[in-house]
Design goal:
mainly beta, 7-stranded mixed β-sheet, 4-stranded antiparallel β-sheet, globular
């Protein structure tokens, strides 16, 4: 099993930046893909960014050019650098580890972007 703990959320003004962290522990050798998802009030959870264990990345169209997913293997941590934040980026952000056939989720961290 993989355990995930997110951190780094908070309140920021529009145009500002935040960096989210997702620290992984447990059976991390079995992780194929790490991803960041978000869920805004009243909306479904959506994919923000993903990174494969070979280094490939993919992003939602809404965050391309503003968000960057990265990882530090030595720290077993995945990051989401968020720049040029917009009020519509306000959501709870979750980290997910795909370890076939299972998924592991973190508890989420709240990001609030004020206008």
């Amino acid at each position: 099993q993989v355990q995930l703990v997110e951190s780094g959320g908070g309140l920021v003004q529009a145009g500002g930046s935040l960096r989210l962290s997702c620290a992984a522990s447990g059976s991390i050798f079995s992780v194929n893909v790490m991803g960041w998802y978000r869920q805004a009030p009243g909306k479904q959870r959506e994919l923000v960014a993903r990174m494969g264990n070979t280094g490939w990345t993919s992003y939602a169209d809404s965050v391309k050019g503003r968000f960057t997913i990265s990882r530090d293997n030595a720290k077993n941590t995945v990051y989401l650098q968020m720049n040029s934040l917009k009020p519509e980026d306000t959501a709870v952000y979750y980290c997910k580890a795909t370890t076939p056939p299972f998924d592991a989720w973190g508890q989420g961290t709240l990001v609030t972007v004020s206008s």
